[in-house]
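ok so dumb question maybe but i'm new to this and my supervisor (M.) told me to 'just get the structure for DUF1622 domain-containing protein' and walked off. so i did the thing. is this what she meant?? sequence i used:
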Amino acid sequence: MAVETFFKLWTSYLASGVEGVAGLLIGLAALQATLRALILFVRKVGRNAGLAELETENIRLRLGRWLALALEFALAADILRTAIAPTWGEIGQLAAIATIRTLLNYFLQKEIDRAAVRHPERLLQTYTPSPSTPSNGLKRMLGKAGITRSETEVEAP
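this is what came out, is it supposed to look like this??
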């Protein structure tokens, strides 16, 4: 019985820590977005309106990405809490929370994808280089290791 109590207590502390990380991410993301928005607002005088609009969207989408990550951490904390001898009520509550958070993440990602289509020149999406074309950073790293370009090329299927 003492081992079960220990694991319940440890899992509860772990869930609180993961939830704390989610809160920290939200706080830092809000701070970053606020600072970027203030800088944009101060510099906006005399700027191109279209460029300012793109920057505003970029700030909003960065915040959205951080919030999506924080939602994942919060969901992980809820799962940890429910893993400790759950009742049917807790399982139902977790299902509702997971559904809401999953929908929020889905719609945030859809918005990020739409922005990437509208402005492909802006790196709103993460870039994944194809295996046949290493990125410049990878090329430099491979060059330092003495690996030539021909060794890194991959045949297309």
